[in-house]
Here is the input.
Amino acid sequence: AMNYIELAYEQEANDPAVIDSLGWGHFLKGELEQSSYYLKKAWNILPDAEIAAHYGESLWKQRHYKQAIEIWGAALETAPKNSLLLNTIKRLSPSLLEKNTQEKTS
Here is the structure.
């Protein structure tokens, strides 16, 4: 699958969905620095909840916890019901959701 994603990236180097897929492919291969490079690029083009879920997870895996929480927090502001984002946060940093809920009710 990475071959197809890389071909798509060669043709659509500024498409955030293609860049996200390339970054996630690197994540799945354990190439975390490459993963974060592409996911950050995708996030900067389109700060989308699904890109945030992937980018944050890549950062988390590299122990860049504060950055991951910042990305997820920003995405929660615009897409608080995105299932991929919520599931990723629940799995890795559930306290972020608790904090976010408390802030909204106070």
